[in-house]
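Minutes, project check-in
Item: structure for the 145-residue chain
Input as provided by the requester:
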Amino acid sequence: MTDSNPDPPETLAEAAVRFKKFLSAQHWPQTISWLMRDKVLVDRQGQFWVREQGTEPFEQAKLRYSEGVQRNLGVALRAVCATATETFASVFVPTDDLDRQYHLMGRVLKLSVPTSRKSALTVRSPLRWWILELRNKRHSKALEL
């Protein structure tokens, strides 16, 4: 499911307000955590594993969003997976005009969730994360954030 809003807000915080409303309408949790590629894995069964994160993913998401607004190619906020109380999402910015067209994006704020919700489990233990990473690195490489 997708929704496009004209004129992306200037900040990620303002865009997140719109995203939360969209998530609510799609029956997804409104608490958003931003993903970094090295903090999420997916196993053979399609189960998502998210490493417990600090503030770094939010800071990176803010920078990426700001870059997208400045480049005027559009910005997409994408839900990837969720727990019962938290949606894990990413910020996508096309690399150029061709990439923007390839991803069917206008110069707008695009909000999306997968048609079927993927469940996520969080991992706190560094040892458990290391084991999961060894087992699932090959499957997780194809994950588009």
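Outcome recorded: The chain has four helices and eight strands.
No further action items on this chain.
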